[in-house]
Design goal:
heterotrimer, A alpha/beta (about 500), B mainly alpha (about 375), C mainly alpha (about 350), B: about 375 residues, mainly alpha, globular, disordered N terminus, C: about 70% helix
Chain lengths: ~500, ~375, ~350
Amino acid sequence: MRNKPTIRRLLSLVGILAAFALLAASCGDDGEEAATTTTAAPATTAAPAEPEPEPDPMEEPEPMEEMDAVVHLGILGECEGAFGAFHEDVVAGASLPFITFAGGASNSPTSALEGFSGAVVAGVPIEVVGIGCGDDTPDRIIQEVRKIVEQDGANVVIGPLSGDESIAVANYAKDHPDVTFLNGIAGAQETTMVVQAPNFFRFNGDGAQWNAGLGDILHNVAGWDTAAVIADDYSFGWTSTAGFIAEFCAVGGDVVSRVFPPLGTTDYSSYVQQLPDPDEVDGYFWAVGGSGTNASLEAFLSAKGDLTGDQHAGNLFFSPALAAALGTDIAGAYVGGFASLPGDVSTPAIEEYLASADAAWDSLVSPMSGMEAGSPRAAAAFGFFYGYYSSALAFIMALEEVGGDLSDNHAALRAALAGVEIDGPYGKITLDENRQAIVDTSVQQLVLNDAGEVVSQTVALIPAVDQSFGGTFSPTTPPPDRENPTCEARDLPWVGNAVPVVDGVPQG
Amino acid sequence: MSPTGAVSGSGPARRLLSARNAVVAAATALALMLPLFGSNFFVEFVMTRTMILGIAAATIVFLAAYGGMVSLAQYLFAGVAGFMIGNAAVAQDAWSKGLKLGWNPWVAVVFALAVTTAVALVLGALASRTTGIYFLMITLTYAVIGYYVFGSITPLSGFGGITGIDPPGLFQDHPVRMYLALVVLSVLVYAAFRAVAATPFGIALQGIRDDPVRMASLGFNVSLHRTLAFTLAGFFAGLAGVFNVWWNGQIDPTSISIGPTLDLLIVAVIGGTLSLEGAWLGAFVFVVANNYLRNLPLVDRVGITEARFSTVVGVLVLLIMVLSPDGLAGIIERVRSGLSRPGRPSETSRPPSPPSDAPAGAAAGAGP
Amino acid sequence: MLPGWVPRAAVWVPAAAAALWVLVLARNTSAGPAIREPGEFVVTLLDGVTFAGLLFVVASGFTLVFGLMRTVNMAHGSLFLGAAYIAHEVQTNMVGKDANIDARDVSLLAWILPLLAAGAVVALLGLLMQQLLLRWNQGQDLRQALITLAISVIAADQLLAHFGGVAQPLKWPGTVTHFFEIVGERYATSRLFMLGVALVVGALLWLWLNRTRMGMVIRAGVDDQEMVRALGINVTLVFAVTFAVGSFLAGVGGVLGGSFAGSVAPGVDGAWLLNSLVVVIIGGLGSVKGAVAGSLLYGMVVAFSPAYLPAGYTYYSVIFTFALLAVVLAVRPNGLYGRVE
């Protein structure tokens, strides 16, 4: 048999390699220890800080003082997946406050992805060290955040964009106490309520908060007593729907049917078929996103009847901007809010904010301007941009408050962040004890404009919406899923405080 | 004895074998010493991921080179193992999805590998009567259905996935140990695949690859051989999946969706689907390109930005398939044989399928 | 070997059980037993048949190309998506607005012209792909699959860069957007229109393959390529035309699928590649007859499993797709009408 020597040779090879492996493993351990000691050595000379794990102690021995004096900013964007087109929008959003309020200048007049330079806050220079590229999946965002923190050396991270990503990043934050994380616009409830990383801050509402006010208006103004919900079968669909269900039931409505088609469904007809008929229920709430937004609505048209404004409502996906296939019969439907307000509301603060975007860049490529180079204000008016903007703004305010003090794992900075009060263009933002935003949100209505097109119009502002919905959600209650929350009447702090908006002007 | 007669003289083959082993041993030594001089990020991220992807891609190469089956289900098996670890090892009081059985992490590993192997056995038995391109399509379908199964069955995961999965104490907070373990594991997997190829089972498998009808008429159970090879590959892919989930700390259905599935195939293709070593080479190129390409100066001027990484990878694969379907390993082999035997016509100019110029380990085993 | 009745039983016993369940037993389901809720049953059946029509149009192009030249076109879904985007561009230009397009805004011409334009462009793109990248490596099926796979990765990324992640509208013409009553349930004419287009496509395909000289060459080529070549027939031309037709069918499918969903969005390329794969795995690669059978079976499973699973278990409907595949693979590894290689 010729193959015998082959086997023997292989076995001896394996043996040698294994011995080598053991030897090298012990060397490796030594190496690891050596690395720790070399890291500790400069740390003792550098006054108060704990030994901070540096990215590369052997090749770039960098004194601690210098580390402390610079903000190495990483931005987690999204360049693939369902939100891939918003990459430039969110990077621009995170950059704008540093350009407007910290003396920075964009490196390119037509692209935010080139970064900015020259920004200084309270004497601390701000350097963009990395822009991460998510694809809407937790796996990928973890790899991107590791690259930004462990390779590029970021000590402040702004992002990510979408829900499940933020849960993963918040978990990552727990293991990296030397880095401060500010959420981008991700809206998963668990990120702040359950994970509770002490160095993860979120200055935007979660998916449930954005729908505050909707249940109240639909029950008490539109007169719905019963409703059916249809939403994507994953955490954002559940959370968004939970915000509607919690409030609609709190004020006395009843949710009679919950249908959750799986992500990626092609033919929604058999799921729509599970909804009650239009004469059996007062209305329907929709939270189906991506390519499903239109596909599910078309399936409803086919099986159940016209989409009429008095019988349909939805979350942010249910808007002319995202659900481009909605017909004109939909006028009158109520839609939940998002981080920013539609263009019909114009205040001096909003105008100033949008003008600052126009001042920072000549043009940006954004889905809000049809994926062509367009006016930056179009991108800035949308919630994705504004979510990143408000986080960066909060960071600048806090860093100024502490006079640029980044010592002791950003301890002073974090205390200041927890107490920041943003009086932003789209309302007040403060944080609760879980470092989760308490926000002003809004309710929209779809109406026909003079040209006969369906547009969003703001009908009410809901002040100070918090994450708990009067105790519906807490770290010990089951997170939103197919069955939860259950339908229960209760008091919500903001019901009755809604500020009506008429023709874009808040009344009161 | 040989069903193929594909291999010529034994002398050069033996020389090749030893040269090949020397390169592998040198690479292994380098990989083991890397923590002494490489940066933390390079060791704990780039090289750790390279080893995980390398092991998983090697299972594709094993099936393709020795079994003639190009499988797109290997990342699914890595995912099955990961989900099982997530369900079994996460503590009951932790906030997470899944069953949260709270088992000892090593028991969880055994459980995860057992489940993965069983799943691979069943799926392999179903697909085993097909081969070639048909097999590719069936395994792609497995992969996508696996995504929906874990997404839809919320007790096991749901689309949100399982978070907060810690590695066992041995590796927790010891990323360098995990890396070294992966290097050793890589060597063991590599050696195991080559050893299997030299067993009577492996030789029969290669015979089936080349002429299933003839092997069946010789009394070999064709589909059983294919099933067992697929099961073995599934087991090793599961092993890679265990480390992947420890390294990543979480797993969700999109971790095994069509994107990562194709990425793994691309890793195997870059390295060369007929060369076991190519799996790790391809993984290294893929991970390095993913992490460093965008940092090169001026590359964004030619359209290489982090936002268009998929296009870069696509163009890379297209170039490789157009120029050298045997991947980087094929290019290296071509250069090597061109240097040492300038007069001889290149062997690699032959079409790649069926893979008659199989790796040397296999060739020596199947010699006449 | 297993006794002959085992595979037959593996088909008929589950089929009979499913029929019994749907007809009489399905009480705690959203549709209800068919004998008590005939309307729901008819609607579900129509959903299945009409969706099968769409599946057939897409998968027939895929299976045609494979049958003749053994090329698995992994970029089939990209052609589908590309065509849908082209049709969207043409239609919004013809209608004159890109949001809130009402069905009555869309004339029959504003649907047919985008369909033909998209089909033609995609056919041309497919032809280019075949001529530049696939012609010279004919017969290396794996290499071809990986080349088309690379193209699909590039295409998906470039389409995302160009059209963005937000869904873009694509609408049925107003003339087919009506509803009618059937057994007390409302049903959309547009779904029947989609089935009608699929039947026309199927009929034309049948005529082409069975009543023209080239069709006969293709059928002969499917059976024995060497013989056709030996007879001195210009195989190169036949290959090129077949690839263009296969791409055209992907394009028609893309316009139908986009109109059916009301919009075009990234990600459907992968979904429709998978749908094509499932259909041809069930039906048998290379067989147009198999594409019909595979589309019908898969369409029925997609329509019936969510409607007739007990409440609370509808999420497990994906398992039935797998079960269908498993049964077919166990009984006929090469698909229902596939040839044994």
